[in-house]
User: Fold this.
Amino acid sequence: MPKLGKLQKLSTDELVALFIDVSLEMKRADDWLENGAYNRAYDKLDKVMAELQVRSGDGRYALLPLLTHPNIQVRLNAAVATLTLSAVATEAMQGIASLGYCSQAFSAKRMLRAIEEGTWKPT
Assistant:
């Protein structure tokens, strides 16, 4: 995995691959209830998303194919990252929320409710 300080040197495709890897780290940490590992992975993911966002034309568009990824954490993270870019992201988040049996479904429900109530505005 590349150093996070060198993100600007990575191609968009490399950042998408890193986004997937970090999302999988988050899922593993969530499954094993490792809050510290989850939080560290979240911080990495936040940096990857920020780097994609500043790319010409908003590199987060490259995450849209991940809305159908087989891993639920990858799908959730991609939906959160692309909510302002596409209605498909909202649909993906609603699909995750409807699962109702995992922490990702709970997170999706919470985010959708916050958007509806106006207490959270995706950027």
